[in-house]
Design a protein that fits this description.
The complex is a heterodimer of chains A (457) and B (524). Chain A contains 20 helices and ten strands. Chain A has 457 residues and is of the alpha/beta class. Chain A folds into two domains: 314 residues, TIM Barrel; 80 residues, no CATH class. In chain A, the strands form two sheets. An eight-stranded parallel β-barrel of chain A has the order 1-4-5-6-7-8-9-10, surrounded by eight helices. The longest helix of chain A has 22 residues. Chain A starts with 12 loop residues before the first helix and ends with a helix. Chain B has 524 residues and is an alpha/beta fold. Chain B contains 14 helices and 23 strands. Chain B has a seven-stranded mixed β-sheet with strand order 14-15-16-13-12-18-19, with helices on both faces. In chain B, helix 3 packs antiparallel against helix 5, helix 4 crosses helix 5 and helix 5 runs parallel beside helix 6. Chain B starts with 19 loop residues before the first helix and ends with a strand. Classes of the chains: A alpha/beta (457), B alpha/beta (524). Chains A and B meet through helix 3, helix 4, helix 8 and helix 11 of A and helix 10 and helix 11 of B.
Chain lengths: 457, 524
């Protein structure tokens, strides 16, 4: 089943570039005609304001962040006006909001409106309170040619019982999804590739939620504690025929996470499965070294196991990594220049695709160029489209998912599940990411041409 | 680099211990240091050295391991040290500020070259876990670099009003002989901070370090002399409390810089107030004393952040920091939730040896400290409810369990005494105003914390709190030189903030000179 690929240096970069441009244009044309605007959730003008005005952006995010902790509409309005009060120049619509907050009735109205706004926004990104309640969404996505992956949102894990509860939720998600997906109609493109079947049920787990013992200076401590909760999950996934994906978080836990995954999957019990995967973050300067380690590990793994899925992403903790490094006087571990990061993303895509059938490659990006590049390189180097998975975030990459599905690619939406309180940190991070000046989506939203969006980094 | 073009101050980067390659160097450094134990720490007065073994420091995690054998200074040696310092003063004060600064920075470089070994020595002598020990060594380097720059700045004097016919200037002269009396809990950084500040502006120093950590004080003196501070300007008098007392009482001492407990600080202030026969100066006292530090948790706090920050502030280095959190004042609406999560987070703390990476709570410094902490633990259990504990290992070493206690009566001494150990008391309050009232009722006012998201709450607490260092939505320990100038109010201290722009002013005498520039009716 292994596709014979040419040696990496035999692949003509110009052929890749011209295929990339062609694919990119096709995809752009396949975006839903109603909109090339993936951020409908936010009033376009509010979005523009938030992107342009750092102070206002900060105030709005601080508000979104505190919503779950507010105890009444009055409390909500109080916080909102408190944050807005710190903005030097309040834009007219918000100044009006501040004015109505002077009366109790006004505050109740403002609080209700704000809570409604945040909840509406949250529901664009967070598909349901539980896997069970999100099933209709997953089914709708599947019918539309999009697979899904469930991410269970939660508060930080600081105690053993919180870790136990999170593990139980993961276990429940595996059970609920594998049961429900069994009855779904066949979608050949979504459930098999050159290496064999691709599970329908796909659950993500976070190591930091599986143990309260992670410590950057002592990765083993958290790793061992997480391992005892991860093994039953791998077992459950194997029995249910589900895929278990281990997410990557900040650099502080990377060693623990990577060692944990590779060590557990090397245990005899898991030599034949389940289908599983991990994440590679292209914004890390040392990600090429990590890639080599993963590729080497996958190559020596028993052929009885389903290939390890590697989801390549840019990485979602950029601000955190930058600030932490600066506060400690460390070398910044992430690329500070977006173009460097984009180039690395493309280089890693190629490296992973070159690794052949011991890996499954999933490209998690909303950047049209990055996506088109992976597709083009895979094709030009002799791969089949079906051997490449493309992943998007629910709520942000919906139009891209639609376009990819329409063009016949295997696409999977990463779907956060959990309550509003639990989801807020996630939501704020997603919002920050997508209103930053360098965000691909905000460039797209602001009407950059396809040519600009596809330009080489 | 010329003296006038100093590079801007930047904190010494702490070790990036999340990287395996960086961690790999630690055990090797520990082995190197262990091979050299015990360290000899002589009395060092000028070029003279007298070794001895009256003061023995041991590893708090393995009390049979001797880390240092130090001499104990005699009263004659106290006399000799002050006399030598007076001679050293004459020479050192004549050195230009830029050259003094160069010597301090050379001392910083000396420390920097030996960072891992010094860190390992702290792991052994004080049972400081690696992360904390490394931070202490970095802070020592920071003080040298920061005060060196500050002294150059100060040497430029201040602008005064100038009118025709006169020339006015104000300058800063050293006070004279400074006695530095330092604690063991930041065994390099604190003596280094007080000593380097005094030296930077031209004083001579006699250092009396804590008897629990003579080895690190010895290393500091070696570093300063290697950097070019004249032997006579920095002497070392290891010993017990009476050495410090004799030094404080000595009429030849001009200023005292002390960091330690309130009872000792009170005694120093009292003793220093006495003007002896023939003593032509008042002694000044810079004292950095204890704390009973509270963290306020408002109803809108983010507990995901508050819980780990409180745990770190209360239990890192077994709570043996004057800045450590010892009380939590939590608003009633989220009190249950906080207590449950805090208890769970403390139950998983690892109480273990300092050299083991991943240890949260190391042993306390000595047997007497352990007894004190255990006594408060028992009292807390009697008067309140122990809601969580992390058990100590069954090993020799001065281990104490980490405890969280609730429901204590308002008059409990657990709520007012500085326990200096891994005991955290949690108390419910109606709201933030109520919490501020509680803080206001305390004798100490060193550090404080606030977890709240409403900007108005933050403003209210800022305005009301008497503490010297308020930390908002973060841990309350780990002040960085130049970033969080450190020091308390009320009975927490007398001084201006360490690691801040005004600290050096405590070690100088101001001099204003006005010169008539009129000669025979002409401005010349």
């Amino acid at each position: 089943m292994t596709t014979a690929r040419p040696a990496p240096d035999a692949v003509d970069p110009e052929a890749v570039e011209s295929e990339l441009q062609r694919v990119g244009r096709e995809l752009a044309a396949a975006f839903p005609s109603s909109s090339r605007q993936p951020l409908r959730a936010f009033d376009a003008r509010a979005m523009e304001l938030a992107t342009g005005d750092q102070e206002l952006r900060a105030a709005l995010f601080r508000f979104v962040d505190v919503v779950p902790a507010c105890r009444s509409l009055d409390d909500l309005a109080h916080h909102l006006t408190g944050f807005l009060g710190e903005v030097g120049e309040t834009p007219p619509p918000l100044a009006a909001a501040m004015r109505i907050s002077h009366t109790r009735a006004g505050r109740a109205a403002l609080g209700a409106a704000a809570a409604g706004g945040v909840r509406h926004l949250a529901h664009r990104f967070i598909v349901g309170e539980s896997p069970q309640s999100a099933l209709p969404t997953f089914r709708r996505l599947w019918n539309g040619g999009v697979a899904s992956s469930v991410d269970l949102l939660g508060e930080a894990t600081v105690t053993q019982s919180e870790a136990d509860r999170y593990a139980a939720r993961c276990n429940d998600a595996i059970a609920v999804l594998s049961r429900a997906t069994a009855g779904w109609p066949t979608r050949p493109r979504l459930e098999a590739d050159g290496s064999g079947p691709v599970p329908r049920a796909n659950v993500c787990a976070k190591v930091s939620a599986l143990t309260p013992l992670l410590a950057p200076e002592a990765p083993r401590r958290g790793q061992d504690d997480a391992a005892r909760r991860m093994r039953p999950l791998l077992r459950a996934a194997h029995e249910a025929g589900a895929h278990l994906h281990i997410d990557m978080e900040s650099l502080d836990s990377r060693e623990a996470v990577l060692d944990l995954v590779l060590e557990l999957l090397s245990e005899d019990e898991f030599a034949a499965g389940p289908s599983s995967g991990l994440v590679l973050q292209a914004y890390l300067r040392d990600s090429p070294d990590q890639t080599e380690r993963i590729v080497a590990w996958a190559r020596q793994r028993s052929a009885a196991a389903p290939p390890l899925t590697v989801r390549l992403v840019k990485g979602a903790y950029w601000d955190h990594e930058l600030v932490q490094a600066r506060q400690h006087g460390w070398e910044v571990p992430v690329f500070e220049d977006k173009a460097d990061c984009d180039r690395n993303f493309e280089a890693l895509s190629r490296r992973l695709l070159d690794a052949g059938s011991s890996l499954r490659v999933a490209i998690g990006s909303h950047n049209l160029r990055s996506v088109a590049h992976a597709i083009a390189y895979n094709r030009v180097s002799g791969g089949e489209d079906v051997d490449l998975e493309l992943q998007v975030l629910r709520g942000l990459g919906d139009d891209l998912a639609h376009a990819l599905a329409a063009r016949g690619f295997r696409v999977r939406a990463y779907c956060p599940v959990g309550d509003l309180v639990a989801g807020m940190a996630y939501l704020v991070r997603r919002l920050l990411e997508n209103t930053s000046n360098e965000s691909f989506l905000s460039a797209q939203a602001q009407g950059a041409s396809v040519q600009e969006l596809l330009a080489a980094p | 680099m010329t003296a006038t073009e100093q590079t801007p101050f930047a904190n010494e980067p702490v070790l990036e211990l999340r990287r395996a390659s960086v961690r790999a160097g630690l055990q090797e450094a520990l082995a190197t240091v262990e091979a050299r134990l015990p360290v000899e720490v002589p009395v060092r007065i000028g070029a003279d050295r007298r070794a001895g073994d009256a003061v023995i420091s041991t590893d708090p995690g393995a009390p049979e391991r001797v880390v240092a054998r130090a001499a104990a200074a005699t009263s004659d040696e106290v006399q000799a040290a002050v006399a030598e310092a007076s001679r050293g003063l004459a020479r050192w004060r004549a050195v230009a500020a830029v050259d003094r600064a160069r010597a301090l920075r050379a001392a910083a470089a000396w420390l920097r070259e030996r960072r891992l070994e010094l860190t390992a020595l702290e792991v052994r002598e004080c049972a400081k876990p690696w992360l904390e020990a490394d931070a202490d060594v970095c802070e020592a380097i920071d003080f040298l670099e920061y005060y060196a720059r500050g002294a150059i700045e100060l040497s430029r004097g201040r602008e005064l009003v100038q009118v025709s016919g006169e020339r006015n200037d104000m300058s800063y002269a050293p006070r004279g002989v400074v006695a530095v009396i330092s604690p063991w809990n930041f065994p390099l950084a604190i003596p280094c901070g007080m000593t380097s500040a005094a030296l930077a502006v031209g004083n001579a120093v006699v250092l009396k370090p804590a008897e629990q950590s003579p080895a690190l004080a010895g290393a500091l003196v070696t570093a300063l002399r290697a950097g070019g501070i004249p032997d006579a300007a920095i002497s070392l008098l290891p010993g017990e409390g009476e050495v410090g007392a004799a030094l404080v009482a000595h009429p030849g001492v001009h200023a005292i810089a002390f960091t330690g407990s309130l009872p000792v600080g009170r005694e120093i202030v009292r003793s220093a107030a006495v003007v002896a026969e023939g003593q032509h100066h008042f002694k000044s006292v810079v004292a950095e004393l204890g704390g009973k530090n509270c963290v306020i948790v408002a109803a809108d706090a983010d507990l995901d952040e508050a819980v780990p920050a409180i745990v770190g502030s209360a239990f890192a280095y077994a709570g043996q920091k004057c800045s450590a959190a010892s009380r939590v004042l939590v608003a009633e609406p989220i009190a249950d939730q906080l207590l449950e999560r805090l208890a769970g987070a403390v139950e998983v703390l690892v109480v273990d040896q300092a050299q083991t990476l991943g240890t949260d709570v190391p042993p306390v410094i000595e047997a007497a400290a352990r007894e004190r902490v255990l006594r408060y633990g028992e009292l807390a259990a009697r008067e309140g409810t122990v809601v969580a504990s992390a058990p100590p290992p069954d090993e020799p070493g001065w281990f104490c369990p980490a405890l969280v206690v609730a429901d204590l009566p308002e008059n409990s001494s657990v709520l007012s005494d500085e326990i200096f150990g891994p005991v955290l008391a949690v108390q419910r309050v109606r709201d933030v105003e109520h919490a501020c009232d509680v803080v206001d009722g305390l004798a100490f006012a060193l550090t404080g914390g606030l977890f709240a998201r409403d900007p108005e709450t933050v403003r209210r607490v800022r305005d009301r709190t008497p503490v010297g260092n308020l930390y908002v939505n973060r841990g309350i320990t780990g002040a960085m030189v130049g970033r969080q100038p450190f020091g308390g109010n009320r009975l927490s201290g007398t001084g201006l903030k360490a690691g801040g722009p005004d600290y050096l002013l405590q070690f100088v005498a101001q001099r204003a000179v006005s010169e008539n520039t009129m000669r025979h009716g002409l401005v010349v």
